[in-house]
Amino acid sequence: MKADFDSSINHFHFIGIGGIGMSGIALTLQKQGFSISGSDTTENESIVRLKESGIRIFKGQDVENIKKIIQNKNKENLIIVISSAIPQNNQELISAINLNLKVIHRSDALNFLLQNKKSILIAGSHGKTTTSTLITTLFAENNLDPTSIIGGVIPYYNSNSYTGKGTQLIAEIDESDGSISKYNGDLAVITNIDLDHTDHYKNLGSLKIAIKKFASNSKILLANNDCKNLKECFSEKAIWWSTKNIEKIDFAGIPIKTDGSKTIANYYESGKLIDKIKINIPGLHNLNNAIGAIAACRISGINFSEIKNKLHLLKTPKRRFEFKGIWNERQVVEDYAHHPNEVKETISMARLIVNKKDTILPLESKRLVIVFQAHRYKRLKDFMHDFAKYLGKADLLILAPIYSAGEKPIEGIHNKKLKSCILQQYPNQEIIIAESIGCTKNILKEKTKSNDLILLMGAGDIGELSSELIEKNKNQVNFHAA
Questions:
Q1: pTM of the model
Q2: How far is CA 222 from CA 51, 141, 294, 442, in A?
Q3: Residue 20 sits in the same domain as residue 161
Q4: Are 369 and 400 in contact (CB under 8 A)?
Q5: Which domain, by its residues, includes 271?
Q6: What sign does the dihedral 95-96-98-99 (CA atoms) show?
Q7: Among candidate residues 386, 310, 393, the one with its CA nearest the CA of residue 350
Q8: Same domain, 100 and 163
Q9: Tell me: the pLDDT tens digits for 49-93?
Q10: Angle formed by the axes of helices 384-391 and 415-425, to 10°?
């Protein structure tokens, strides 16, 4: 669905509408006047939000769903939207194809929304959701009222999408399936690139090709100079930001002080010291995200003084070191980290907090207890030793069952193998294998202590554990960290 999109189309049906990317696009299309429906196999927060918006949701992905939709619709005015997570043997999809309905990928639907907007497209292997959220917040706080579609819940809106009256559309771009090369943005922001999604990319070189195509399609390229892989891709062609150096760097934030509650940095533009800034989110990776966001705002014409006055309001999206509450005198934090480098940065951030007085959490923590849920068998297989290197830095490690995300198991790839790899590097590490998410709660009761920081990491259903531990709306503190 390109610029020649048929204006007669008036209804979009999303198969798998509960996905964080799909639901954001669906909500935005609805706000623009389109009729929307969707289906999903499970109910989550996104589904609840969609229902509250009046969108018709089918539970399950059955042949009958399509038949019910076309009862009162002209087939020529209907489009079916899928993501790469929908397999070709999906019965609802097969039904749509058999009825000769037009089926498009969600990237095409997002591309349609980018028309007639000044687009800021954020891509990268890590940090893109946080950077997108920070850009959105700064734009909103400066009365620019952008439209935003992001792969996470933005605290400012308590939603993963918002339809504003401003001219800008801020969108997070997914690189996992290669569709990134379809987009044509006004400003492309690339946080970093790291080998991942090896089911689609054979090696880092093939990922670089896709990133280069995305960049070449964009009018302006803003990139993170701290990422070696990005520097190899673009040489000096990009507008650069950095948290490590100022020479030949357009926007830089060099840290002066970092602790468990904040980061203070000197802010530079084109090598010139502009001012001192404070980001109330700990972690050097979050300083990098913040400098990228500031740079995007400056390129878009927002005055630095206006940006600085709003920095104290920045919050990162949900499931990015999100404090969930206090359980039996233990603090529970949830994080989306599911790649080794994300695990590394999240643990580094936790170490700024454990046994420290300056902290974003309400209580002091004495030990770091990690519950890790590997996401996909292939990712664990490809990065087994890297996961082991970083997970071994916990004081107590609990390995939850692998979240398959629809993958078939791979022989020899399981949590016991990961435990063995960790013990090779950290022979004294205490590691417990949990047979299910449910029994993890009992392990935590038996093995943790008062003043422990319990860090739940993973992109799967590990969030169910935090719901089990923390009663809804009880002992909640209204903040989000990276």
A1: 0.88
A2: 37, 22, 11, 47
A3: no
A4: no
A5: 117-313
A6: positive
A7: 393
A8: no
A9: 899 989 999 998 888 888 888 887 777 789 999 998 888 888 999
A10: 60
